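Incident review: delayed structure delivery

Summary: a single-chain prediction request sat in the queue longer than the usual turnaround. Root cause was a stuck worker, restarted by the on-call engineer. No data loss occurred. The affected request and its eventual output are reproduced below so the record is complete for anyone auditing the incident later.

Affected input:
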Amino acid sequence: MSPRILILDDDSTLSSLLVEYLASKGYECSGVNAEQEALEKLRSTSYDILITDIVMKGMGGLDVAREAKRQRPEIVVIVMTGHAKVETAVEALQVGADDYVLKPFDLSEFDIAIGRGLEKRELLRRLVEHEQQLEQRVEEATTELKHSNDRLQEVQYYLDSLINSTVDAILTVGPDDKIAFSNKGAQRMLGFRDEEFLQMPLKSLLGKGDNDFDYLRRVLQVDRPLQNVETVLRHHDGEMVPVSISFSLAPDVHGNAQFMVAICKDITEQKLLENELK
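Output delivered after worker restart:
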């Protein structure tokens, strides 16, 4: 579809000349001689370009240009003015006009001004389209991130529930050989609160202290994991709790073993039964 041009000039001869010339260039042109008529056409028809004289009776071309930009920010506005009114043309540019043509003019000057205006509008359209695409991508990425975060929270909740619902004690021990995590089962089994477990050396829980701990470290280094090791753990009240422990090493993101994971099963009843059968 050819660009639609509205020409406003109170000189009907000049406006007719411009309509005829620009129509011959393939544009769809309309010419008006009064500001109110121009405003009515701008409201009723979607124009791509407004060419308006600045100095006219009534509200003036500057006000029409301003209103045109308010209604359709993407419309190309070209103003016409005499050599003595260059300052007015500059003012028109400040209120949103895209270009100006000085009178007297060569009709070919409108070809240049219209070409520049349409090129500018196309660049702005592409910029807006690009910004909208970026906004859409950001929105989609944000939505996907939220969904992923929701899924991670669901998985985390499930794992936390699973870990804390077991009667077995689960402990993780950091590279410094101190407890970094304890589940509810460990707290129930050994009587320590979570904050008491944190940073507690694992060897302080083992019945044989350093000897047990050194043995576990040596075995894990050579033949990991270590399954169903029977030993005793120290309860908060000083009593010893017989347990069967399985140990493994959890790697970090680089594959290096960092954390020791201990799953401890209370075998007190099993030991009592064994003693009764002896």
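Verification: The mean pLDDT is 86.
Action items: add queue-age alerting; document worker restart procedure.
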